[in-house]
Structures are given as C-alpha cells and as structure tokens.
C-alpha cells in the first residue's frame, strides 16, 4: 500500500479472495492472503509476472479449485481490465505460453477460438491484418499443428464468414501473399484449385 500496490491488493481481496471464501475456496484464499498479499504489501517483492506465475503454480497445479476457463477469465479480467500492466501482445504471449505449453488442456482450434473471442470481440486493439499475422506466426511457425490447407480453411471461416472485414478481392490477395510468396507449400496448380473451390463452390462471387 505504501508502494503503489493498493489497487492490486484491494482488487485481489474484493474481486477474488472474498468471493472465493464464500464459494468453498478457503485454502486458495488463505494461501493467497498469506503467501502473496501480506508479504507483497510490506516488501513489494513480487512483480506482476511473478504473481501470475504464482497463481498458475498454486491455483492450477496444487489447489485444482478453478476450471481452466474460469482461471483464464480471471486473468483476463484482472490483468487486462484492472492492472493494465501488460501490453496486449505480451499478454497474448503469456496466455500462449501457459495454455499451450504447460496446461495442454485446450485443443488448438479451441484455443484459437478463445483468442479470437477476446482479441477481436472485446479488446479491439489489433487491426484485422495484424491479428491474422499474429495467428500466422503462432499457428504456422511455432505450433506446426495444422496442415496448411486446414489453416487456410480456418482463416476462410473466420475472415470471410464472421468478420466480413475484407472484400473478396483483398482476401484473395492476402491468401496469395501468404500461400504463394511466403509459405511456398502449394504448387501453382494446387493453389488455383483451392481458389476455384472457395470462390466458385462457397463464395459464389465469381461468374463462370
């Protein structure tokens, strides 16, 4: 409280600990009080990242009192709406590290859907092109869990059916830029076949 930790402490007490004590989370609540809040208020010894790591270790590995979805919602509510200590990109990277590398509780498609819901519908901090670039970087360069065709289908579903933010010509240009110039995973004939399948069978935007 002396070192500008007042908002952090009060938020934890009233947003998480007191409700948790009423909902049969007594062990978690008491441990948070004595292991983090009281020492932190006196010594300011834990940075925000360390605190999140502590929550992950205790609340998830030991207490098993929060379902994964509720825990992520808590992190989103506190870390993003109240604390404002992590830039959006860093926060997504943190979620990626925990939810994908450590927890292994979400299938890749569900995790992308979660990111889409938060980053696109709620945060509104990334332009659509930047968000697609972020997805491309993670899903393609790091995870290597989706074949290229499946990944393009995922992009088609979101960018075309839900977002409606790209005109058809711009969307094709985006696909051309990635699939042809960067990935080099489709021969030209296969890529034309892919365009034919989408543009003719699904979109119905090209006359014969």
Automatic annotation (TrEMBL):
Keywords on record: Membrane, Mitochondrion, Transmembrane, Transmembrane helix
Transmembrane domains' residue ranges: 51-76, 83-100, 112-136, 143-160, 180-200
Name this polypeptide is given: Uncharacterized protein
Gene (name only): orf208
């Amino acid at each position: 409280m002396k070192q500008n930790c007042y908002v952090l402490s009060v938020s934890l007490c009233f947003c998480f600990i007191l409700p948790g004590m009423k909902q049969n989370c007594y062990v978690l609540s008491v441990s948070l009080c004595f292991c983090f809040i009281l020492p932190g208020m006196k010594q300011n010894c834990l940075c925000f990242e360390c605190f999140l790591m502590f929550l992950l270790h205790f609340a998830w590995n030991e207490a098993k009192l929060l379902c994964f979805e509720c825990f992520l919602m808590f992190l989103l509510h506190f870390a993003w709406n109240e604390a404002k200590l992590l830039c959006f990109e860093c926060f997504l990277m943190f979620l990626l590290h925990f939810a994908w590398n450590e927890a292994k509780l979400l299938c890749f498609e569900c995790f992308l859907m979660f990111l889409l819901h938060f980053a696109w519908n709620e945060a509104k901090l990334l332009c659509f092109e930047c968000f697609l670039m972020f997805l491309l970087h993670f899903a393609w360069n790091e995870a290597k869990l989706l074949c290229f065709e499946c990944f393009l289908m995922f992009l088609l579903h979101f960018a075309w059916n839900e977002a409606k933010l790209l005109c058809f010509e711009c969307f094709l240009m985006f696909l051309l830029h990635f699939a042809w110039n960067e990935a080099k995973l489709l021969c030209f004939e296969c890529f034309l076949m892919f365009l034919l399948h989408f543009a003719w069978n699904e979109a119905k935007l090209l006359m014969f």
